[in-house]
Specification:
Blueprint: H1 2-11, H2 17-24, H3 28-44, H4 47-62, H5 69-80, H6 86-96, H7 114-118
Length: 143
């Protein structure tokens, strides 16, 4: 599909875009969307963006991959003096595949009673008397 758009882009100086789209079977709005997307890609890959990406990666690994885009944004401002919108940092981190590692929370078991982390304790009804005279005299299942 990209080859059709590129063909239209090359021939648009000789022929009208409407006719080229009709001949190639492409919707005109899709062609203009392709042009806009190509322009945004060129704008995105500037030298400033490359430096910003490098700074983001440095901070990300310096903070042991636990910082998300919000905290990276504040660190960029503190350390490098770069003021960047958080959404831009989000898009750049997402494009590079950088995501914060969310650590699992641990329960505090020190100040809780023993039953909180052992579970329910049933009463000792057999009192370690396991020998029986008849079958099914003592069942050990509890409700």
């Amino acid at each position: 599909m990209n080859s059709k758009y590129k063909t239209i882009d090359q021939l648009k100086h000789k022929y009208s875009v409407v006719d080229l789209c009709r001949i190639l079977g492409v919707v005109r709005s899709s062609y203009y969307k392709f042009c806009k997307r190509a322009k945004n890609k060129k704008k995105e890959e500037s030298a400033e963006t490359a430096i910003l990406k490098e700074q983001i990666v440095t901070l990300y690994y310096k903070r042991k991959r636990t910082y998300g885009y919000r905290r990276i944004t504040t660190e960029l401002e503190k350390q490098y003096g770069v003021i960047v919108p958080p959404i831009m940092v989000y898009y750049l981190m997402n494009g590079m595949g950088l995501k914060a590692v969310i650590r699992k929370r641990r329960k505090n078991l020190l100040n809780q009673p023993k039953s909180a982390y052992i579970g329910h304790v049933y009463p000792n009804e057999l009192d370690r008397q396991f020998s029986v005279d008849k079958p099914v005299q003592q069942n050990t299942t509890f409700p």
